[in-house]
Design brief:
Blueprint (H helix, E strand, L loop, with lengths): L2 H7 L5 H9 L6 H8 L3 H13 L3 E9 L2 E6 L1 H16 L3 H7 L4 H6 L7 H7 L5 H13 L3 E6 L6 E6 L2 H10 L9
Antiparallel strand pairs: 1-2, 3-4
């Protein structure tokens, strides 16, 4: 799993959902995808262009009207879409989907299969700020996707975080995705 690609995919709110829908067979036309995501037009368009910039999605040459283009997954995008589909199946309800649209949810879960300290998680995700990590950890704990345990034997006491329940299933879905874009 390439954590940098996971961070890049989740940088736009609807990218993961668009990939999952394409994997599940929703037509690659912009109108069909927009309707299926139920996203706003601007956020949807930004996510779509973001996926094109990441080389996970491309315009389907020779298909679609210039004002209503059709899109298809690239070879790397096919594997990323399979990962996105597995993740969205783990978290099917709307409150889960809202949490998955947050930029740091997926990256934090993907580096937390075993107990890790705040600092260990932060060093695994170089661009994350202390505040963003702290807020994400609290949200994931509140949703019961991450467990916080305090080691009182350490001096000073240290908190350790690790993925649990649906968070652990999401971690496993992400860990199947390799840096080369092929499933392991």
């Amino acid at each position: 799993m390439d954590i940098n690609l996971v961070v890049k995919i989740t940088a736009r709110a609807w990218s993961l959902r668009i990939l999952a829908l394409l994997h599940e067979g929703v037509a690659g036309r912009q109108a069909a995808l927009l309707k299926a995501t139920q996203a706003g037009r601007t956020a949807f368009a930004q996510s779509l262009h973001h996926l094109i910039d990441l080389n996970l999605l491309e315009r389907n040459p020779g298909h679609g009207h210039p004002l209503r283009p059709e899109y298809r997954l690239t070879p790397t995008g096919i594997d990323a879409a399979a990962m996105a589909s597995r993740i969205t199946r783990v978290a099917p309800d709307e409150t889960d989907a809202v949490l998955l649209r947050r930029a740091w949810t997926l990256p934090v879960l993907s580096v937390s299969p075993a107990p890790s300290s705040f600092t260990e998680i932060k060093t695994s995700l170089p661009p994350i700020t202390d505040r963003a990590l702290s807020q994400t950890l609290k949200q994931l704990q509140g949703h019961n996707w991450l467990m916080r345990q305090v080691d009182t034997n350490a001096h000073p006491p240290r908190a350790k975080y690790h993925a649990v329940n649906a968070g652990l299933q999401i971690n496993k879905a992400v860990s199947l995705f390799s840096p080369a874009g092929r499933l392991l």
